[in-house]
UniProtKB/TrEMBL annotation:
Gene3D superfamilies: 2.170.120.30, YbbR-like domain. It comes from candidate division CPR2 bacterium GW2011_GWC1_41_48. It comes from the Bacteria. This is YbbR family protein. It holds the Pfam family YbbR. Transmembrane segments: none annotated.
Length: 408
């Protein structure tokens, strides 16, 4: 007991000072004031058959929170609403604003204003056509194509004064800047006014709708071969022995959907005009709509070699890729020609369909352009004809990865 009573006053003052210091430290660590952003007011517990006619607006929230928490707060941390359960019919009535903090360390001290005038009307329903609406852009090298909404119209439920504000009802797709594949799924239905702002306090049936929005590369390029387009016939007893093009390939560019299936482009027509002599010409290329050349190439040089039917025949062979990697698509970028010799009777039935050039890809298992040497023994041909030559002796084969389409 004497130990406790000795220097009692000094001990008591130490406790008081410690308590005051604790209060000071606690106060320094807390921040009191209005949350810097106004928060929108929601309406809960509306009676069936009634709807909000006018937005209750935004409020300022006075809070007390630890400094470490205060700096991380945002509007989503607060549930701000008015309770409409006591309102049984349409009209206007003042109701108190209620705020619930989702973080228990944040104290709600009040709001400004403390109440709002809540206006309700009898709910009505209206059927309105739906459109597709997007916001933002996909990944940098991509663009959104023409989309499709799989629902024609929706039922809109709300106050008549709200429904009158509707400029359009949309299936809304918000692009976040990282999309590289097509969007195929359900998105929310939202109504917009004339200033393109969303209209609150409306209900929709359905609330979500399926949409399809293609996400396409802005520009894609690829290398393709050139095919000479001929019209007319050579002179009797003569045929087109060989065709030479310079350059033999070109690079084209355009939207992926436009160029993905293009393997060659054609020249303008060249008239054989009953010729029995070789033809040399410079002709333009014929390109599909919205497809252009990577380089500014005006014309290509074409040589058409005309030969006597009794001597030889040159055809463009069919290509058969053997032992190819199933994950790679193969295409030949060099126009090949196989010259066969034999009697006129044996050469007559020879066509590109029955002359086949076998190309073994077992040594080429990665994507890219590969130079491959060809020879006469790689050619399969019918009848009693002989393979005289295969030109060019080195061809270019392009291997590309087969892309799988992903639905999102």
């Amino acid at each position: 007991m004497k130990y406790i009573t000795n220097n009692f006053f000094a001990k008591f003052m130490s406790l008081v000072l410690a308590f005051c210091f604790w209060i000071f430290v606690t106060a320094v660590d807390m921040r009191l004031g209005f949350f810097p952003k106004d928060v929108s007011v929601d309406v809960k517990n509306i009676q069936t058959g009634l709807a909000v006619a006018e937005d209750p607006g935004n409020v300022k929230i006075k809070i007390k929170a630890p400094m470490s928490v205060y700096s991380k707060l945002n509007s989503d941390n607060f549930d701000v609403f008015v309770d409409a359960s006591a309102i049984k019919s349409g009209g206007a009535e003042h109701v108190d604003i209620k705020v619930i903090s989702k973080d228990p360390s944040v104290q709600i001290l009040g709001t400004e204003p403390q109440n709002v005038l809540l206006k309700l009307e009898d709910e009505e329903t209206k059927k309105i056509p739906i459109v597709l609406k997007t916001k933002g852009d996909p990944s940098g090298d991509y663009r959104s194509g023409e989309g499709e909404v799989k629902t024609k119209d929706v039922e809109v439920l709300g106050a008549p004064s709200k429904i009158k504000q509707i400029n359009e009802v949309a299936a809304f797709v918000e692009l976040k800047g990282n999309e590289k594949g097509n969007i195929d799924g359900e998105v929310p239905v939202i109504a917009f006014d004339e200033t393109d702002n969303p209209i609150r306090f409306l209900k929709f049936n359905p609330e979500k709708t399926p949409v399809y929005l293609p996400i396409l590369p802005k520009v894609e390029s690829k290398t393709v071969g050139i095919k000479v387009k001929l019209k007319g016939e050579t002179a009797k007893g003569y045929w087109v022995n060989k065709v030479r093009i310079d350059p033999p390939i070109v690079a084209i560019k355009g939207e992926l959907e436009k160029i993905k299936n293009i393997e060659f482009v054609e020249t303008a027509e060249i008239d054989l005009a009953n010729s029995n002599k070789n033809i040399m010409d410079r002709v333009k290329l014929t390109l599909p709509d919205k497809v252009t050349l990577v380089e500014n190439l005006d014309k290509v040089s074409v040589q058409i070699f005309v030969a006597d039917l009794d001597s030889a025949k040159t055809v463009t062979p069919s290509i058969n890729f053997k032992k190819a990697n199933p994950k790679l698509k193969a295409e030949i970028l060099t126009m090949t020609a196989v010259t066969l010799t034999g009697s006129q009777a044996s050469l007559t039935p020879i066509t590109s369909e029955n002359v086949i050039l076998n190309i073994d890809l077992s040594s080429y298992q990665v994507a890219g352009e590969h130079k491959i040497q060809v020879s006469k023994d790689m050619v399969i041909k019918p009848g009693d004809v002989e393979v005289s030559k295969v030109l060019p002796e080195i061809i270019t084969v392009k291997l590309t990865e087969i892309q799988e389409t992903l639905a999102q």
